[in-house]
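Q: Structure for this?
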Amino acid sequence: MRRAATALAVLGAALVCASVAAAGMYAGPLQWSPGQGAGSSYSSTWHENYFATYGSGYDKAVTFIDNRSYGWHNTVRNRNGVTETYAPYPLTVKAHCVAYDWGFYGSCSVW
Amino acid sequence: MMRRRTRWLALGGAVLVACTFAGAVVASRLGDPPDVEALAAATRDAPMTRIADIAAGNGKTARGVFAQITANGQFCLWDAPTGSSAQGQGGCNPADDPLGGHALSASLAYEGGPSPADVTDARLIGLVASDVASVQVVMSDRSRRKMTLRQAPASVGGFRAFGHRFGRGELEHGTTPVVVLALDARGREIDRQATGFAGG
């Protein structure tokens, strides 16, 4: 009984760790250059995609790319300190972020 | 042989420590990036103030332009269906500098792409400083669209705001918004922001 409970606890912890590893930062922090992009894994459960930078004023975009047409959805482009969009429903998508300015530091995250 | 390997390991360790230290110094000089997890939680709690409208079009319902000041010191500007919607598209700057050091802070949201010919809906929202008299969007066919500016309440900074949906007619044949111009009362350019579509 105790072994089964331990096994369940370990399995639960592993599942939590796996989900934490899958969501979160998928690129950076790093120094970006124009045209440089990054993407997460595909999932039907993503909610929000963020591109956060050290300071404001850097041109960049976030979007979601579906796994069938590879089209872009809910793209947002601006030069705010944090650029954000939400995932389209009900599609299997990956979060994608792309830089259009030189030499700024930042990271991309998805939940 | 063993001693040489130890030396290389020590050198590698020293390089790693130096790089980590250099990265920390660079990061500390640039300031911390916003903690997006904390920001996401803060935006769920902070009230949203509607400061401009986005008309229905392209088979989509009307939306609004919403300003939000969060408990963790961020000023966020959203293109969203309602003030209670989690479907916000836009971004945030520090609350003590909502325009990010510019006279114009614009945000473009669009569906489709990345090729301009595949864009089915595009919306532009933004804020301008008090010395900006008008905002115009230059399209890829060189035509211009004048944005309607609305005064935002003092509670969200008292800026003037705009929201615009580019209708199907405006996006026909791959025509896209290229650059947003902030002009003074004499029509002189104060600031510009490229949308990223060709020609900007």
